[in-house]
Amino acid sequence: MSRTTPARRALTATLLATAVATAAAAPAMAAPTTTASHRQDTRSDNEAYNKSIVEQVLKGVFEEGDPGVVDRYVRTDYIQHNPIAPDGSAALRQAAINMRQFPDARIDIKHIIAQGDLVLVHSNSAQLAGDRGRALFDILRIQDGKIAEHWDVTQPVPATTASGNDMFSTLSKPTTGKPRPRWLTAYNKKLVTKAFDRLLVEKDASAVTRFLAPNFRQHSPTVTDGRQGAQAALTAYFQNHPQLKVEPKRIIAEGDLVAVHSHYIPAPGERGQAVLNLFRVQNGKIVEHWDTVQDVPATSANDNTMF
User: Could you tell me which of 24, 103, 16 has the C-alpha nearest to residue 57?
Assistant: First the structure.
């Protein structure tokens, strides 16, 4: 793998709305009402728009070197949480210009979900042809139709994994990276929240049998497939870090995909790691998992922390 340059790290780090209906006039003093289905349709339209502008900015910056997408879709007071990138759209705009020196650069979007004003993107980003690149999760907050805030967690893609699965593919059936079905969003988010609290906040590795499917597929590079692999990895991790504290920061869900952005603190006083876990849920069980882990550095180019 080629060595990541400071310019590229800054670029990777940097990155990283509607139909309104009126009710027909009603007799006497009856007030117009908005149906639940209309509210759902409007929310879905907004979230689809949010995803579209995020995709345009990612592709425009990372592949096309186009600062115009930043001018159109990023607020000038853009808030940055990546520790090696400053606040403001000007840095992102310059990053797009700098990207022109990497004509083979790519960002392959593997999963993208939206809930409310947040969009989560799971991608494989690389600057050179043939480079395995980095696994990257970006979270972007949309305000008034523009990107207003950004968090990310990234790590290099290894040559091999313990499970034999890469860090990006979808293996559980149906093998699509698109979230589905949307009406299960609330249920799946509640289930994953409960599972995350039990398994990681409360550190109960035995709970894998309750929350994970028997054919659970794993994309974390050092963990094998199945419930047994997950339980063994969690048990060892907890034994090695008896003072571990896990703090969930934000949870984003759409359909069968649920993402948890959190801060892992191995012991008091340690900076710990930023971690993004993405789970796929089917029939009330978690069937697949992807993640990235990044150390929290001692210094930052902004004052916002990674969380």
Answer: 16
